[in-house]
Every structure is written in C-alpha cells, then in structure tokens.
Structure prediction request, 318 residues.
Amino acid sequence: MKKIGILFGKERSFPHGVIERINSKKIDGIIAEPVSISKVMQGEATDYAVIIDRISQDVPFYRAYLKNAALTGTAVINNPFWWSADEKFFNNCLATKIDVPVPKTVILPSYEHPDDTGNESFSNLAFPMDWEGIFEYVGFPAYMKPFAGGGWKNVYRLDSLGDFYEKHPETEQLVMMLQEEIIFDEYYRCYCIGGKHVRIMPYEPRNPHHLRYVADFKPTKERLKQMEEIVLRINQYLGYDFNTVELAIRDGIPYAIDFCNPAPDADIASVGQENFEWVIETAASYAIERAKAQKPGQDNLTWGKYISNSATKKALYK
Prediction:
C-alpha cells in the first residue's frame, strides 16, 4: 500500500479536500491521510510514498523531517532542498535569463545589523551605497518587500524618497527588495501543478483579501496561451510541483510579479468554488501520479531545469 500524506497547518478545506478526493477515486494500492509524525530517526524512511507540504516554510522541524523523508525515497511536493535554497530575488534574477519580463528590482541590505554582527562585518559593503543609482533604476512608485517570505507580510507601497526613508527603518533586520510598480491593465494569478497543468485566474490585488478573485478581466485566447507559456517556463526552470505565478499586464506585456509561492492559498473561501474544484482535482490526480511512479529508497524529487541543466554541464566537463 502506498500512502499519500498531507502536511498542513491551520488550513482545512484544501488538505481535507485533497485527501477525500484521492480516496474517493479508490485507486488500488493508494490511500491518502494527514501526515502523522511520532519520531524522526536519521536515515529511516517514512510510511509515505508522497507528501504534499503546505506548512514547512513556517515550521523548521517539519522541513528537517521532509528532507530526511526525501533522502529515503519519499516524493515531496515541493522539493524541500530547493525550496530551502530559493527566494524571491533569485526568482527575479533567473527570470531575466529565461526571457520572462519582470519589474526592475534591487536587493537592499537590512536597515539594522543582523544579530552578532557589527560594522566590521560589512567591510565589503560600500558606504554610502549608490542610492541615487538605485532610485533612478527602480523609480517611484515602488514596492518594498522581503526578498524571501510571502503572505503579503511587511509589504510597503512607496510613492517617494520620503516614503522610503520613513518606512525602511520599520523593516529592522529584514533584507528587502525594492521593486518597480507595474501599473497594470489586467492581473492574473495562475496555479501550476506538476509543471504541466495551469489554471489562469483573474485576480484583483487591490481588493480586500476575500474579494481578490472577484475580477472581470477577460483575456483573449492569444493572451491565455502567452501567459500559460510563461507560467510553465518559470515552474519548469524552478522545479516546483505546486506553485502560483502572478502576472500583471502592462501595455500588452505580462510581467511576472510574484512566483515564489510553493504553498499557495487554496482555501475555498478565498479562491472560490470553481478554482477550488480545479486545484483539488488536479492536486489529487498529480499526487496519485507521483505515488505510482515513486520508487522506494531512490530520489523521487523534482529538480528544475536550472539545477538539472547545471548538473548536466558539469558532468560533460568531467
């Protein structure tokens, strides 16, 4: 019997919905359940062929558990090693190399020194930094947000230099990105599952959270195809099994705004019934596919093109 486990926190509708959908299919030799952890012994396999991870970004113990599980043969959705290494600024840097339009973005040192560091720790950092060049490049209005993390936490919209100098001290030890604001005509949030299944959802980020999926943008078939190609390219390079990509359309060009969301919102109360049905069915079917393909004791993780292409190049030079 191959077990598919869901590792989750406070959310309920998505994890329980996926479990129920998988079990309702009555696939011989496959069942789904919430992950149960009673102990974690180094190098010992778990009972799960597949684990869908929805919470380890907030719980380091779970991340360590998942890495051990992956090492011993569990197919973890998403790859916990890559997810641990990835962050939003790298995503933007990669996008510039795979022909995906993104807003002009820079990374900023934290306003306060990290704990256990002092002035001597930053001898390689110019003082003052080229603030004039930074502000000229990004422009205003702009968004300042953490280079890693999500959930719209610590996000600031800045209209001027004055706004920046007022708000930057509030970020304390956080490392922030300063990003050009894309004044958009249309906006979409796009699920991508398995690097091949895409759901493009009209989205209005300026609405209150519970109304953001209430939007009447109507993309043409050509625009839908264009956005789907961008979403697939991003996720295939990053190697995420389950992610969302946010696209803002300005002057007919889709800009990837945010595409490091490996535990994206999938609650029925926010995404709506139709989107919820799609994500439940697609996630359930994909988890079953991964369970069938899983080989005990082997590497069953997804590695994106960025990693696999690099590994192939290095192998050629040996």
Notes: The chain has ten helices and twelve strands. The CA atoms of residues 65 and 272 lie 32 Å apart.
